[in-house]
């Protein structure tokens, strides 16, 4: 038996019904609508952006987080869901709290540094997952914590000379010099002095005289070292410091993102990709969202000429699309710019599929380059129920109908078949909506789709 759709999804459906019909194309922030996500950690690898997040459980009243999630994109608006490649259960010595981590690649292996609560001590510790693929699965690299001092939020950075550093901490700020194996360190655990010159001045909290709170994100650009962090509490804002070396001395440089967005925490990750700079953060923007039900979002920005970072404001529009999506190659159904009602799950044949689809749910795929025209749509579907219809619409969920594919029952939610239908009017670059219609209950699952060109 499949579980009923979550309260979260029901709220999202309700919002979609109120806001979406006949309106303009929806904004694309937050990035993920199928679950609550938090603590973004982007990674650029082989021309693709991988986005690692935490997962706030529906209805949380604390940071109730059991697993991490992974997504990827080449255009910053259509994100492919890779599910959960690592969870608290990956670490046999951990008991809870899949909090903010970061993934780095070295010598073909991907290392995921994460804070979790250690079973034996009950304290926060930093574990390391490892995989040969950016989408996992990840296994415990050590079988024990790499470091354990009760503090959180690891950020890892490999300098141009090959020396890697692991930073972490709340309320303090620590680092170790990682060895090239990325799972051991030399030189002991070092504490970065939290001076007001380095991290700004906080008033009203004698125990925390500087603005540094948590969530460091350390990187180098044009020879300057940046430490972007969550400042003050609560609510947090995002600030940064710079230094001439990875170990300081740090100079406070001011606010990047002011307190905004109905989550009392924020958490930043910054990358350069395809000539642009991108700032990832989280807020409480989805229906039911708040401090413990957060969502990851992204904005594009440009560094000032002197290397300083401009102030960035949360938007619902998000980053502009970087390129277009090719409908003539196979696209995973879980590649989504915006969705309403649907969820994702592991597909029996590997990867993910879209499921829990009900009448009126839809998926938006942004900037689909149809060129001179598409003739046929083909999709891989499964249904343990009676099936339904997949409407292909342009511009909005109620936009012009380009074609309809009928889906029959296949005898199982993972019993897949391929169906095709003719389409018309799909030329140029359009936002494509896959809209699901049919009777009551769950209709069918979708694994992938692809168009064929006219002529
Ligand atoms: O997500 C749990 C904690 O909330 C993170 O570790 C912090 O950075 C804050 O975002």
TrEMBL record:
Pfam families in alphabetical order: CBM_6, Glyco_hydro_43
Annotated SMART domains: CBD_IV
Cleavable signal peptide: 1-27
Site (Important for catalytic activity, responsible for pKa modulation of the active site Glu and correct orientation of both the proton donor and substrate): 153
Record GO biological process: xylan catabolic process
A GO molecular-function descriptor: hydrolase activity, hydrolyzing O-glycosyl compounds
InterPro entries per record: CBM6, Cellulose-bd_IV, Galactose-bd-like_sf, Glyco_hydro_43, Glyco_hydro_beta-prop_sf, Glycosyl_Hydrlase_43_Enz
UniProt keyword annotations, A-Z: Carbohydrate metabolism, Glycosidase, Hydrolase, Polysaccharide degradation, Signal, Xylan degradation
Residue stretches making up the CBM6 domain: 329-452
Membership in a protein family: Belongs to the glycosyl hydrolase 43 family.
Identification of the protein by name: Beta-xylosidase
Organism the protein comes from: Catenuloplanes niger
């Amino acid at each position: 038996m499949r579980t009923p759709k979550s309260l979260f999804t029901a709220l999202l459906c309700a919002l979609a019904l109120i806001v979406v019909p006949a309106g303009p194309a929806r904004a694309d922030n937050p990035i993920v609508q199928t679950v609550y996500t938090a603590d973004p950690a982007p990674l650029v690898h082989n021309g693709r952006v991988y986005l690692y997040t935490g997962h706030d459980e529906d209805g949380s009243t604390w940071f109730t987080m059991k697993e991490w999630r992974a997504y990827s994109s080449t255009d910053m608006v259509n994100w492919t869901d890779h599910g959960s490649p690592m969870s608290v259960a990956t670490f046999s010595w951990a008991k809870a709290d899949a909090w903010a981590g970061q993934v780095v690649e070295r010598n073909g292996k991907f290392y995921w540094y994460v804070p979790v609560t250690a079973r034996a001590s009950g304290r926060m510790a930093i574990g390391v997952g490892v995989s040969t693929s950016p989408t996992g699965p990840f296994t415990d690299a050590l079988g024990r914590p790499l470091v354990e001092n009760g503090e959180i939020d690891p950020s890892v950075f490999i300098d141009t000379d090959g020396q890697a550093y692991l930073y972490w901490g709340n309320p303090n700020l620590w680092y170790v010099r990682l060895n090239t194996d990325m799972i051991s360190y030399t030189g002991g655990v070092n504490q970065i002095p939290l001076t007001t010159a380095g991290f700004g001045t906080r008033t009203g909290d004698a125990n925390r005289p500087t603005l540094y709170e948590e969530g460091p994100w350390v990187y180098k650009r044009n020879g300057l070292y940046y430490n972007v962090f969550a400042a003050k509490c609560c609510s947090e804002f995002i600030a940064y410091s710079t230094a001439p070396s990875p170990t300081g001395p740090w100079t406070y440089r001011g606010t990047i993102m002011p307190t905004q967005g109905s989550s009392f925490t924020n958490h930043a990750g910054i990358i350069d990709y395809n000539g642009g700079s991108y700032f990832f953060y989280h807020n409480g923007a989805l229906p039911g969202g708040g401090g413990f039900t957060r969502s990851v979002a992204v904005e594009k920005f440009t560094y000032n000429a002197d290397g300083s970072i401009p102030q960035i404001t949360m938007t619902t529009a998000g980053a502009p699309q970087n390129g277009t999506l090719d409908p003539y190659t196979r696209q995973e159904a879980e590649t989504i710019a915006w969705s309403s009602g649907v969820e994702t799950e592991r597909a029996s044949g590997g990867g993910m599929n879209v499921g829990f689809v009900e009448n009126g749910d839809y998926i938006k795929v942004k900037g689909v380059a149809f060129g001179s025209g598409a003739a046929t749509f083909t999709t891989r579907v499964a249904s343990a129920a009676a099936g339904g219809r997949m409407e292909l619409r342009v511009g909005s969920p109620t936009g012009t109908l380009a074609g309809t594919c009928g889906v029959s029952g296949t005898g199982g939610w993972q019993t897949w078949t391929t169906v095709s239908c003719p389409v018309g009017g799909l030329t140029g670059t359009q936002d494509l909506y896959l809209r699901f219609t049919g009777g009551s209950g769950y209709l069918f699952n979708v694994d992938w789709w692809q168009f064929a060109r006219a002529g």
